[in-house]
Design goal:
Blueprint (H helix, E strand, L loop, with lengths): L6 H6 L20 E6 L6 H4 L3 E9 L3 H9 L7 E2 L9 H12 L7 E6 L3 H9 L6 E5 L4
Amino acid sequence: MCNTKNLELVRSLGADRVIDYTGEDFTKNGQTDHVIFDAVGKHSFRRCRGSLEPGGIFLPTDGFANLMWALLTPRIAGKKVLFQIPPRQTKQDVLFLKELIEAGKYRPVIDQCYPLEQMVEATRYVETEQKTGNVVLTVSRA
């Protein structure tokens, strides 16, 4: 799911289906998915649960309300919220990512790069919520 200007970018990254959130509310289109990964913290489990298949999983990246759901959903039949605290990657996860990169199947999207000295400006840019992809801080070797 993305805005209109990023539809082709998301398709080029390999998405099977892309939803333009400026014209369609995925929670009301009648389609269901096995996994909903909220990479930018815009949605809650409460809003998304109707869009999950039975046994589906909601993966939020932030939100204290979602943390509460992560504690409650194992007791509720069907759908689950998985919330890692603290976020962590296993050695297996890192090796999988390495394999994807080496096979050319992973392509990061870099919006802008800032030198470390401009961290405040980089943070302000991220907070505009207008970035596409990642913002990178570079460290000088000098």
